[in-house]
Amino acid sequence: MRTTAVILGALLLGAAAPDPVTVPVTVAPALGAHFSGRLIVFVERAGDADKPDSPIDFSPFQPSSASIAAREVIDLQPGRVASVDGETDVFPAPLSALPAGTYRAQAVLDRNHDYNYGGRGPGDLVSKSVTFTLPGKVPVVVLDEELPSQKEEGPDLEHVAPATRARLEAVLAKVQPLDIRSVSLSAFRGTPTSIRGWIALPPGYDGKTRFPTVYSDGGFGSTLQSARISAMLAAADMAEAKRPPMIWVFLDHSGPTGTNEFADSANNGPWGKALTEEFIPALEARYAMDAKPTGRFLTGHSSGGWSTLWLQVRYPKLFGGSWPTSPDPADFHDFTNVDLYRADANFYHDAAGKPLPIVRMNGKLVATTEQFARAEAVLGPAGGQIASFEWVFSPRGANGLPVPLFDRATGKIDPAVAAYWREHFDVAHIVTRDAARLKPDLSGKLHLTVGTADTFYLDGPAHRLEAAMSAAGIPARFTYLPSRTHFDLFERDGDRSALLKDIAWQMYAIARPGWVRAKP
Question: String of b and e for 16-49 (b: at least 16 CB within 10 Å)?
Answer without folding.
Answer: eebeebbbbbbbeeebeeebebbbbbbbbebeee
